[in-house]
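Summary for the steering committee. One of the milestones for this cycle was to obtain a three-dimensional model of the protein with zinc ion bound, which we needed before selecting residues for the alanine scan. The sequence and ligand used are listed below.
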Amino acid sequence: MTLNPSTLNNFILIATGYAAAFLIALWLSLIIWAYRDIRRRSRDPLLRILAVLVVAILFLPGILIYLILRPPQTQEEEFQQTLEEEALLQSIEESSLCPGCGRRVREDWVACPACYTRLKKPCHQCGRPIELAWNLCPYCGTPAPGMRRENLTVDDALRNLAGDIENDPMANSGVSSQSDLP
Ligand SMILES: [Zn+2]
Ligand SMILES: [Zn+2]
């Protein structure tokens, strides 16, 4: 079987057409890919336009240049890394030192297991550890035992007022615990 010139020409024409269509499709997909990729990596509009232009003008070598020069992390990865760093920093800041022996102690320990130094006192109402210097539990609002009434928060004073009126007839005048101030 011999190929006549016109069949050969047709074949070459079709093959060229296919190759051209494939290259155009590849070129467009690479531009779209570069646009999507740079959108995840940078907020800078100039950088986005540059990335798309490099790929659009230089085609395959442009993709190579883009892959070399693009920001190494996506914004999401950067955000995750920032979160992890912050969490790490916070955990370092939160672990404090025992005033007795200088070892690291956890924030919720009431005593140092190494030197028996008292670190916290438990709230007598809810039992959570609070600083020795604090006179009010920050978790449940209960004042430490033996504290004067004026150390109560306004909320607690109001909450206890009803009970006061029942127990103490002098409180009926409407004057609150401020009256026993000097
Ligand atoms: Zn200690
Ligand atoms: Zn408490």
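Key point for the committee: Helices lie at 5-41, 45-58, 60-69, 75-94, 154-167.
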